[in-house]
Design goal:
The complex is a heterodimer. Chain A has 4 helices and 1 strand. By secondary structure, chain A is an all-alpha fold. Chain B is built from 23 helices and 3 strands. The chains are: A mainly alpha, B mainly alpha. The interface between A and B is large, with 31 and 41 residues.
């Protein structure tokens, strides 16, 4: 019975510690807005593509693109 | 070649290529036939089975070498490959199905490799094939995730390659345990394998890539890459004491990350890492029980984690949503999925009479036997984290708890449910009769998990761990945010550093271009034009000078000589470099 209570105590304390760690301590530095990566990466992509004229293979050969048909 | 020398991995890989080349109508049949054929080959293997490929007189690759450890991993790979194929049959196109089979075959070949060279070859093939599964959704996010995935695996693969070459130099081509050697090959192989085993800080790729794959892609990825890494860790590092602490840290860290997570597949990805931590700690003990514990937990984990990932996939397929905060009350609408998920989540948490209970018993017993009290406590805490984040959180907020949401649920293909049921049955059977599991392990270590104190221990952990969840149930509901991980380092600062370096290099070479072109132009116009040399001189001017008996001007002769010299220098340079 003592062993049973010991394990229950260990599990209870572990559970509380994990909740404090994940919901309070780790939460502040690690939890970010949904667009945290997306916003920056999309801006980088847009900057890299600045001034790039995208021409379809069909257009570059002087023909009609399939989308036009 | 006799029937006992058929290589299951190569058969699977051959089927992969056939699926990609064969007509569309054959895809379903071939997708199921591939793992069945591999399983047939596996069932015919014996300890004398081998397959060698002679490269030179001095070098022969041992492509297939069978021992008990490889058979343990191969058995569960065959079983999960069948279930995954059934799950995926209605969801994949030809290319994805083919790449899945290629991937599974390459991982099977990793555990069958008899030497380090064969091992690294199949390791690299598996990295490339698995990258396609991340990319296969063909959207912007999956493409970017696949790119980051292959960058990390290229890094790991190169570390492993150099480490393996050093290993061959020192110990020969056969696998040698290098526990606690701490030489260069030790660290390089550890980093290389550590990437695939998702050992922090090399773990960021896993929760980054797995949720971006297709639904069957995630299930395939969750079953193979990391487990092959555990196999490699057993081969090279069993008994490395440092890894006990690393494994314990992994288990707790990933459990904390899982508690914060809102996305179903990201949450389960963290649990893959947490469970890997338990396996790493167990194999690091190095005893027979520790190695059997890691192998047994890999076996049971592949099955119940497979079902959990399948269940998440079914939920996403049916509702189109993957965020826990957008789901709720699905048990009534998806009872089969809910029950299979519940059983598997109880299994991963170690509920008595389910497979996780049986395999965790070996792990905990091995730590107790080795006298590692603190790591044992940390693994117990990680187990509580699993209970909190999967067994309680997902089951409550997604399936069984009250919800105001009335979600439209799309009909799910029966094949997806059959695969889930198959995996769940495995967890129940192995839990009820763990000797089936224990007797198949490398050293056939047997413990009695059904002793009253041991059962009470886990019941106590379940009760004690659940109480805070019930008290803080409102706080447990996840928020619609993301949590950053070690991948932050290469997605933010490292990306910026590379950006700055590349801009600097670009600016430098642009400057060099401008000045070198200017310099060449200056030299060309001045050096090659002798009239300009003396143009501003008041003493002598070449322009008006000519040879005594010739009509030619001295300037013209010098110009021709300089031109001839330049041509000769160019030819000489070409001959030297050629």
């Amino acid at each position: 019975m003592i062993e049973f209570l010991q394990y229950m105590g260990i599990a209870f304390v572990s559970s509380c510690v994990l909740l404090i760690l994940s919901k309070i301590i780790m939460c502040r530095p690690l939890r970010k807005d949904k667009g945290y990566y997306e916003t920056g990466e999309a801006a980088d992509e847009a900057r890299l593509l600045e001034g790039v004229e995208i021409v379809s293979a069909c257009e570059s050969k002087g023909g009609d693109s399939n989308d036009d048909k | 070649m006799t029937i006992n020398n058929l290589h299951p991995g190569l058969i699977m890989m051959a089927f992969g290529l056939i699926i990609m080349a064969a007509p569309k109508a054959w895809r379903k049949v071939l997708t199921i036939a591939a793992p069945l054929a591999a399983t047939f080959a596996f069932l015919n293997l014996d300890m004398g089975s081998n397959l060698k490929y002679r490269i030179t007189d001095n070098m022969t690759l041992d492509i297939m070498s069978v021992d008990r450890l490889s058979m343990v991993f191969l058995a569960v790979f065959c079983l999960i490959a069948i279930l995954n194929a059934v799950y995926a049959i209605e969801l994949q196109d030809r290319r994805e199905a083919g790449m899945s089979a290629l991937y599974v075959g390459s991982v099977m070949s990793i555990v069958m490799a008899g030497d380090s060279i064969s091992f690294i070859i199949f390791w690299e093939i598996s990295a490339l094939a698995s990258m396609y599964l991340v990319y296969a959704k063909h959207c912007r996010k999956s493409s970017r995730a696949a790119f980051r995935y292959i960058l990390m695996h290229a890094f790991g693969g190169n570390m492993l390659l150099v480490g393996v070459l050093l290993h061959i130099y020192h110990y020969g081509m056969a696998f040698t345990n290098i526990a606690d050697t701490y030489d260069a090959s030790f660290w390089l192989i550890l980093i290389g394998v550590g990437v695939n085993a998702a050992i922090p800080p090399l773990n960021g790729w896993l929760p980054d890539a797995y949720p971006e794959a297709t639904l069957p892609g995630t299930v395939y990825l969750g079953s193979f890459t990391t487990k092959a890494a555990i196999y490699a860790l057993i081969r090279f590092f069993a008994g490395t004491e440092m890894l006990i602490w690393i494994g314990a840290f992994m288990a707790v860290y990933a459990a904390c990350m899982a508690i914060m997570e809102n996305d179903l597949r990201r949450l389960l990805s963290y649990h893959i890492i947490s469970q890997l931590g338990m396996m790493v700690a167990s194999l690091a003990v190095g005893s027979q029980m520790g190695i059997d514990g890691a192998s047994a937990h890999a076996t049971t984990n592949i099955m119940f984690k497979g079902v959990l990932l399948m269940g998440a996939g079914v939920v996403i397929y049916a509702t189109g949503k993957s965020k826990i905060s957008e789901l709720g009350g699905l048990a009534k609408k998806m009872p089969v999925t809910a029950i299979c998920f519940l059983i598997s989540s109880l299994s991963i948490a170690g509920l008595p009479f389910l497979s996780g209970f049986a395999s965790k018993a070996l792990i905990m017993e091995s730590l107790t036997e080795g006298g590692y009290v603190v790591p044992e406590l940390l693994l117990t805490a990680a187990g509580v984290g699993t209970l909190l984040s999967i067994t309680l959180k997902i089951n409550y907020f997604v399936f069984f708890g009250k919800s105001d949401l009335d979600l439209d649920v799309r009909k799910v293909p029966i094949s997806m449910q059959i695969a889930m049921i198959g995996g769940t049955i495995f967890s129940i059977v192995m839990g009820i009769d763990p000797d089936l599991l224990y007797n198949y392990m490398t050293y056939q270590t047997v413990v009695d998990p059904f002793s009253l104190p041991h059962i009470l221990e886990y019941v106590a952990i379940f009760i004690g761990g659940s109480v805070p969840f019930i008290i803080f149930i409102k706080k447990m509901k996840p928020h619609d945010e993301i949590s950053i991980d070690f991948d932050w380092f290469y997605r933010r600062p490292l990306a910026k550093i590379i950006d700055v370096i590349s801009r600097g290099v670009y600016a430098f070479f642009a400057w060099c271009d401008r000045w070198s072109l200017g310099g060449v132009h200056y030299l060309g116009s001045h050096f090659g034009d002798p009239y300009m040399w003396t143009r501003n001189s008041s003493i002598v001017r070449i322009k008006s000078m000519s040879f005594e008996n010739e009509d030619r001007l001295i300037g013209d002769v010098i110009e021709e000589a300089v031109g001839a010299m330049v041509v000769m220098v160019i030819i000489a340079a070409a001959l030297i470099h050629g």
